[in-house]
Specification:
Layout: E1 3-8, H1 13-26, E2 33-40, H2 44-51, E3 58-64, H3 72-82, E4 87-90, H4 103-108, E5 116-123, E6 126-131, E7 139-140, H5 141-147, H6 156-163, E8 170-179, H7 200-217
Parallel strand pairs: 1-2, 1-4, 2-3, 5-8
Antiparallel strand pairs: 4-7, 5-6
């Protein structure tokens, strides 16, 4: 198992079906990846719909108490604990489909490197839009093992970018493109991102851990 998608999902059954299908249709080998889905325990209708799907791909599920979109990182950190892949790829059900063929083989090219992959994402309603700043970074499992978490902050992508800033670890992988259509619904209602304080002290600790690993590795 090379790649683990980390996928918190809530009350978006059609989007979930679409993205899971797109992964199957665009990968080179279905055994190259798994999906670790994280459900809220009060989202029973969504869980039941998933259980009734014809699932011919590798997957694991976690059902946990709802902590809300403000604490998105908690879902990802839980998924990391059981993920089997060498690479951990945080997604969510805003990601509606993978567009690139053989994305699993592209990730495999980096198997002997300690780096962070930054795929591009676009909007299904605007094919001319490409977002190149770090979103949905693909991180090696070793990165999470070193830190003890994927992120201590809701904006796990921004946090990851700040941890590795200036360390020449971030690779923009433009051959991998997927859509990202932000949903404004019951799942995200009331979230006020600007009121969530950034964990600067933990950032310094995590940067030191990565720096020390890089020095030892050399």
């Amino acid at each position: 198992m090379n790649i683990s998608f980390l996928l918190p999902t809530r009350n978006r059954p059609e989007k979930l079906k679409k993205l899971l299908l797109s992964l199957k249709e665009t990968c080179n080998n279905i055994n190259n990846y798994e999906v670790v889905l994280v459900f809220d325990n009060d989202d029973t209708a969504h869980i039941n719909e998933f259980n009734n799907l014809n699932k011919n791909f590798n997957y694991q599920t976690i059902i946990m108490n709802r902590v809300g979109y403000d604490n998105l990182h908690i879902y990802y950190n839980e998924a990391c604990k059981i993920a089997k892949g060498n690479w951990l790829w945080p997604w969510n059900d805003d990601c509606s489909e993978m567009l690139s063929k053989d994305w699993d083989l592209i990730v495999e090219e980096y198997n002997n490197k300690f780096c962070i992959l930054n795929p591009w994402n676009t909007r299904s309603c605007d094919s001319g839009y490409l977002q190149s700043h770090t979103m949905f970074p693909v991180v090696p499992k070793k990165y999470v093992e070193l830190l003890g978490h994927l992120s201590p902050w809701n904006h796990y992508d921004t946090y990851t970018e700040r941890v590795v800033s200036g360390l020449n670890l971030l690779i923009n992988e433009f051959r991998i493109v997927h859509t990202h259509d932000r949903e404004e619904d019951e799942t995200t209602k009331g979230v006020q991102y600007h009121k969530i304080p950034f964990p600067n002290e933990q950032l310094n600790i995590d940067r030191d851990k990565i720096n020390n690993y890089l020095k030892e590795d050399n």
